[in-house]
């Protein structure tokens, strides 16, 4: 069976639709909400499937939005239309099944039953085996710079279906709508759709295979790659040769100022920093992540806003924020911080309680 038949099968499309609806999300350039999608697909399903199969389906441009990054800059996202999200998800599902069998064991980002914690644990394993020099590889604007022709060439090695490859290329070339103006997309896989993370893993799997072939210890989470060696000399040699390989073979630019050879204590990875405790390498949350938690709570607990809310609502939301943070950083050392943080948070809550207690409540005169 051709892959396009799997993609457009009733079971696969229904599964894709359910995932898109469950994830909700904002609408694309056509303004259609996810809630309106069911009726539209029911009325147009046969026409959509036929247009995909005969290669006349044309994806709409993604809607450009920006989200703030921790360094103060903004990350561009491309929001596909609700219908295009379903079709992208329908393409992604069978491609994931094909590639999961061949992806590296040391690739952890956006893969089933793998997480940031797995990447961190693998990094700690290397460090505790004596690989204490780290090459932190930074690929410049990776998601915006993926070469379309190279990506299709890589996909063709496993996806022997020209109609599917044609559809994927259309999504790569769909363009971006920003402030009412449509811009062509000559490179890149816009972040924001279900297909982008799958295609980025397919592209960087070539890097994984090269690192494996060289017998190097590494972890990769999306475009965040770290290589571990036992000496500074080896690390510098690997950094030079891998940088040249990435730029020559994958047509990507390695950021020379951010790619570096460092000791683990001077490196940050997925929100953690490394430290040695009683002769063993461990992790703890970065200072930036601790500050961000306090900033988020401080904003939510601003006195005027907080005193206007029922205390039970405030406590419930605070618990959700704190529980989510602890759940992510639970594999790290944080007892000292949590003791201090607990005192800080209790003081914040006490101030709100006292303020509410002093604030006269409106009453109804009978």
TrEMBL record:
Entry keyword annotation includes Transferase: yes
Top EC group: transferase
Molecular function GO terms recorded: metal ion binding; RNA binding; RNA-directed DNA polymerase activity
EC number: 2.7.7.49
Catalytic activity: DNA(n) + a 2'-deoxyribonucleoside 5'-triphosphate = DNA(n+1) + diphosphate
Xref: InterPro entries: DNA/RNA_pol_sf, Group_II_RT_mat, GrpII_Intron_Splice-Mob/Def, Mat_intron_G2, Rev_trsase/Diguanyl_cyclase, Reverse_transcriptase_msDNA, RT_dom
Pfam families associated with the record: GIIM, RVT_1
Listed CDD domains: RT_G2_intron (cd01651)
A biological process from GO: defense response to virus
Sequence ranges assigned to domain Reverse transcriptase in this UniProt record: 48-274
Keyword Repeat: no
UniProt KW keywords: Antiviral defense, Magnesium, Metal-binding, Nucleotidyltransferase, RNA-directed DNA polymerase, Transferase
Gene3D superfamilies: 3.30.70.270
Family the entry assigns: Belongs to the bacterial reverse transcriptase family.
UniProt-recorded name of the protein: RNA-directed DNA polymerase
Lineage: Bacteria, Bacillati, Bacillota, Clostridia, Lachnospirales
Name of the gene this protein is made from: ltrA_7
């Amino acid at each position: 069976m051709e892959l396009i038949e799997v993609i457009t099968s009733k079971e696969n499309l229904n599964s894709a639709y359910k995932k898109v609806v469950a994830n909700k999300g904002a609408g694309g350039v056509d303004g259609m909400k996810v809630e309106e999608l069911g009726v539209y697909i029911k009325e147009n399903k046969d026409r959509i499937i036929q247009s995909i199969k005969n290669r006349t389906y044309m994806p709409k441009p993604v809607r450009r939005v920006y989200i703030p990054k921790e360094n103060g800059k903004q990350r561009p996202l491309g929001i596909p239309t609700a219908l295009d999200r379903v079709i992208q998800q329908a393409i992604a599902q069978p491609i994931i099944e094909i590639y999961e069998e061949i992806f590296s064991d040391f690739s952890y980002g956006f893969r089933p039953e793998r997480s940031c914690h797995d990447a961190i644990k693998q990094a700690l394993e290397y460090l505790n085996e004596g690989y204490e020099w780290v090459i932190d590889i930074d690929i410049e604007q990776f998601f915006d710079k993926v070469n379309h022709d190279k990506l299709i060439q890589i996909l063709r090695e496993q996806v022997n279906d020209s109609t599917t490859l044609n559809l994927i290329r259309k999504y790569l070339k769909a363009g971006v709508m920003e402030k009412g103006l449509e811009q062509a997309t000559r490179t890149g896989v816009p972040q924001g759709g279900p297909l982008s993370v799958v295609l980025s893993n397919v592209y960087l799997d070539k890097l994984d295979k090269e690192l494996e072939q060289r017998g190097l210890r590494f972890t990769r989470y999306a475009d965040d790659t770290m290589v571990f060696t036992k000496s500074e000399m080896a690390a510098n040699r690997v950094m030079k040769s891998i940088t040249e390989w990435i730029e020559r073979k994958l047509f990507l630019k390695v950021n020379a100022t951010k790619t570096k050879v460092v000791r683990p204590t001077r490196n940050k990875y997925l929100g953690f920093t490394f430290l040695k405790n009683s002769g063993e390498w461990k992790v703890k949350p970065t200072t930036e992540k601790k500050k961000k938690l306090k900033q988020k709570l401080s904003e939510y607990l601003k006195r005027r806003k907080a005193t206007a809310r029922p205390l039970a609502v405030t406590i419930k939301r605070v618990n959700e924020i704190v529980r989510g943070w602890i759940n992510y950083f639970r594999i790290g050392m944080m007892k000292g911080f949590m003791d201090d943080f607990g005192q800080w948070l209790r003081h914040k809550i006490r101030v709100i309680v006292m303020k509410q207690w002093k604030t006269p409540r409106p009453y109804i005169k009978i």
